[in-house]
């Protein structure tokens, strides 16, 4: 939670209301000078070459591992993420830093293609200066996914962390800046005014992770200058539970409550085959009651508060409307301070707004269907397309999964792919994507240089 004063951003612990710390607010009219500094620094940074940048950035991994517990504690105090999840985010991010660097290094290697007449070399060059504008729900991982490949590609980065989590953003940037040359990674603190000024400035790429609404604004703002964008946006993920599913496993996915439901690939809609619905719904309710909620610094607690009173109110308004429209409250629904109990609603239908808008809170909505065709139609009736899951006999579930529109679908598991696969938002959940070889390459400009095949092969 934050309070914005004239010159400072105050970070407030959503569990206690205490001030965690402050950062200076970056005046929006100073952003063009920050961009100029990055443009100057980018020349030498790019000239280091891929090997030079890899050598320089590799030691960051060990340092991140050292500070991960402290960053984890900061994540808990700034945004209320439970201790196991916050420590997990920081430790996972730190442990992946080196392998992601190497993966980007490999993705950016020049590539040769030839036919009988021509030898061509595909270079993946830097774009110049990029912005990394990120949300609060994974305040270390989301920045890392936007910053690391961009730096490896030879871009300089201007990083604007969410105004809800400026201290985690600052701590992360400070670690990188122990190793990076001056001006290669700079930080801008603030909210939408600073975001807008950064997008409007003389930069070459905006790597944004956040809501669909802000993503659309950024795309529009980048239009006149045809600035490159990579937008990873919100979701409204569906879980389909087929008649032949292991219902205990499906009810155990419990992807609706992690981080108090404040996860882009949270399961916000569950569609269950009518014939198994009673048993499945009872199981979900039973398992939901096992989630321990409370002080996020208590290591036995699984979910803490919402990030802010504003986010809490958005979720409660959706819940209230759904109940008014006829949804059945099966458990949860209570609220105190910034906490919302893990909540299960059954009897949901697409006449209810809660089945369409991203909720971003600990509310699991269940609707019944009859037959695969109806399940597919319901799951696809959304402008979003981030993740999804299908539980059922493997081939049956695969047949259903291939008819779904999201960029990532899990079968008898969550939507996350194996090592090296990109993180893909399809439809209005993304515009471009990141991670993996193909994701890393979106931070580069491809250039093709060709020579007659009979001429000597030059050094690249
Ligand atoms: P948000 O869109 O409100 O804000 C994201 C960032 O954009 C913040 O840093 C904010 O200050 C900045 N911003 C706001 N208005 C701006 C503007 N006009 N121009 C430029 N920058 C601006 O999102 P949030 O509330 O911080 O995060 C939650 C959203 O992020 C959810 O929709 C969630 O699904 C999404 N998300 C998506 C992914 C993914 O991988 N697809 C991952 C995490 C979060």
Can you give a write-up of this model?
There is one protein chain. The chain has 460 residues and is of the alpha/beta class. The protein folds into two domains: 2-233, 3-Layer(aba) Sandwich (Aldehyde Dehydrogenase, Chain A, domain 1); 237-411, 3-Layer(aba) Sandwich (Aldehyde Dehydrogenase, Chain A, domain 2). 37% of the residues lie in helices and 22% in strands. The protein is built from 14 helices and 21 strands. It has helices at 31-47, 49-57, 60-79, 83-107, 141-152, 166-177, 192-200, 212-222, 247-252, 277-288, 309-324, 372-380, 394-401, 436-440, and strands spanning 2-4, 8-12, 19-24, 111-114, 118-126, 129-133, 156-160, 185-187, 205-209, 228-232, 237-241, 267-273, 328-331, 335-336, 339-340, 343-346, 363-369, 387-391, 408-411, 430-431, 444-452. It has a seven-stranded mixed sheet with strand order 13-16-17-12-11-18-19, sandwiched between helices. A six-stranded mixed sheet has the order 8-7-6-9-10-20, with helices on both faces. Strand 6 (129-133), helix 5 (141-152) and strand 7 form a beta-alpha-beta unit. Helix 3 (60-79) packs antiparallel against helix 4 (83-107) and helix 4 (83-107) runs parallel beside helix 5 (141-152). The radius of gyration is 23 Å and the shape is globular. The protein starts with a strand and ends in an 8-residue tail after the last strand. The mean pLDDT is 97. The protein binds nicotinamide-adenine-dinucleotide. Nicotinamide-adenine-dinucleotide binds at residues 133-138, 142, 160, 162-163, 191-192, 195-196, 199, 209-211, 214, 217-218, 232-235, 264, 358, 360, 386, 423, 425.
């Amino acid at each position: 939670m934050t309070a914005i004063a004239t010159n400072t951003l105050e970070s407030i612990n959503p569990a206690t209301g205490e001030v965690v710390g402050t950062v200076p607010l970056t005046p929006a009219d100073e952003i063009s000078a920050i961009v100029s500094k990055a443009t100057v620094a980018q020349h030498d940074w790019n000239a280091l070459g891929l090997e030079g940048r890899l050598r320089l950035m590799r030691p960051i991994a060990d340092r991140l591992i050292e500070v991960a517990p402290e960053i984890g504690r900061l994540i808990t105090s700034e945004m209320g993420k439970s201790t196991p999840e916050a420590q997990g985010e920081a430790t996972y991010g730190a442990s992946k830093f080196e392998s992601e660097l190497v993966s980007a290094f490999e993705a950016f290697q020049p590539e040769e293609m030839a036919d009988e007449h021509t030898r061509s070399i595909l270079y993946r060059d830097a774009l110049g200066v990029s912005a990394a504008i990120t949300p609060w729900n994974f305040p270390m991982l989301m920045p890392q996914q936007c910053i690391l490949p961009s730096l490896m590609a030879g871009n300089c980065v201007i990083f604007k962390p969410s105004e809800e989590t400026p201290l985690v953003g600052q701590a992360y940037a400070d670690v990188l800046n122990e190793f990076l040359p001056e001006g290669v990674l700079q930080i801008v603190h603030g909210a939408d005014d600073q975001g807008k000024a950064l997008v409007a400035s003389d930069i070459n790429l905006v790597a944004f992770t956040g809501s669909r609404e802000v993503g659309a604004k950024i795309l529009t703002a980048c239009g006149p200058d045809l600035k490159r964008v990579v937008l990873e946006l919100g979701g409204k993920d569906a879980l389909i539970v087929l008649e032949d599913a292991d219902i205990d496993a499906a009810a155990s996915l419990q992807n609706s409550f992690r981080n108090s439901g404040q996860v882009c690939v949270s399961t916000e809609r569950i569609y269950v085959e009518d014939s198994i619905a009673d048993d499945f719904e009872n199981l979900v309710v039973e398992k939901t009651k096992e989630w321990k909620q409370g002080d996020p610094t208590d290591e036995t607690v699984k979910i803490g508060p919402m990030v802010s009173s504003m986010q809490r109110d958005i979720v409660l308004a959706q819940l209230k409307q759904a109940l008014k429209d006829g949804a059945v409250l099966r458990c949860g629904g209570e609220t105190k301070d910034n906490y919302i109990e893990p909540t299960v609603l059954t009897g949901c239908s697409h006449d209810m707004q809660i089945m369409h808008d991203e909720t971003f809170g600990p509310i699991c909505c269940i609707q019944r269907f009859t037959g695969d065709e109806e399940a597919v139609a319901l799951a696809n009736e959304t402008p979003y397309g981030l993740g999804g899951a299908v539980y059922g006999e493997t081939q049956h579930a695969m047949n259903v999964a291939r008819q779904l529109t999201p960029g990532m679908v899990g079968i008898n598991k969550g939507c996350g792919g194996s090592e090296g696969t990109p993180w893909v938002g399809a439809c209005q959940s993304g515009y471009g994507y990141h991670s993996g070889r193909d994701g890393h390459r979106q931070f580069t400009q491809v250039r093709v240089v060709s020579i007659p095949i009979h001429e000597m092969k030059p050094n690249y």
